[in-house]
UniProtKB/TrEMBL annotation:
SUPFAM superfamilies with a match to the protein in the record: Nudix
UniProt KW Hydrolase keyword: yes
Entry note: cofactor: Binds 1 Mg(2+) ion per subunit.
Domain Nudix hydrolase: 5-150
Gene Ontology biological process terms, A to Z: folic acid biosynthetic process
The protein's name in its UniProt record: dATP pyrophosphohydrolase
Gene3D superfamilies for the chain: Nucleoside Triphosphate Pyrophosphohydrolase
Molecular functions (GO terms): dATP diphosphatase activity; dihydroneopterin triphosphate pyrophosphohydrolase activity; metal ion binding
Organism: Paraburkholderia piptadeniae
Signal peptide annotation: none
Pfam families linked: NUDIX
Keyword Signal listed: no
Cofactor: Mg(2+)
């Protein structure tokens, strides 16, 4: 039975330490494509914060709401963008769907944690200082989110 089409509403979650080291994961289907955690809603009525929590756990094994990472570590930036879906991945969506809405989040972890990757989705991970992480991302939106991270963290600490 074929998979249902992806819902064109997703999350981007920048995982970082207090020192602003950022976790990047390499896509299994595109060698050299480094990114933060991303993923689409599983159902139309799935709350977007729930999507973020689920995707972080699925892609990294990091449990938001667990002992190391409390729920309040997840920050909804209340920011979203719309972008054109790369033609490479359009087959995953319903016919005629060309754009996706991406909601931005961050989650602060206490240190550079070991992660458990979803092997069908990602092949490697690394922690980099935020500037280097931004340079490594293939996605302009992911790069922009990471470049905003220091200011977002500063605003939250006020």
């Amino acid at each position: 039975m074929p998979k249902p089409p992806k819902i064109p509403e997703s999350v981007l979650v920048v995982i970082h330490t207090p020192q602003l080291d950022v976790l990047l994961i390499e896509r299994a289907d595109r060698e050299g494509f480094w990114q933060s955690v991303t993923g689409s809603k599983e159902r139309i009525d799935e709350p977007i914060a729930e999507t973020a929590i689920r995707e972080v756990a699925e892609e990294t094994g990091i449990v938001i709401g667990g002992d190391l990472v409390p729920h309040e570590a997840l920050v909804d930036w209340h920011h979203h963008i719309e972008f054109e879906i790369f033609s490479t991945w359009r087959h995953r969506y319903a016919e005629g769907v060309t754009h996706n809405t991406e909601h931005w989040f961050s989650v602060q972890v206490p240190e550079r944690l070991e992660v458990t990757l979803a092997p069908l989705e990602h092949t490697a991970h690394l922690w980099l200082p935020w500037q280097e992480a931004a340079e490594r991302c293939f996605s302009w939106s992911n790069r922009d989110a990471i470049l905003q991270l220091p200011q977002r963290v500063k605003e939250r600490c006020r």
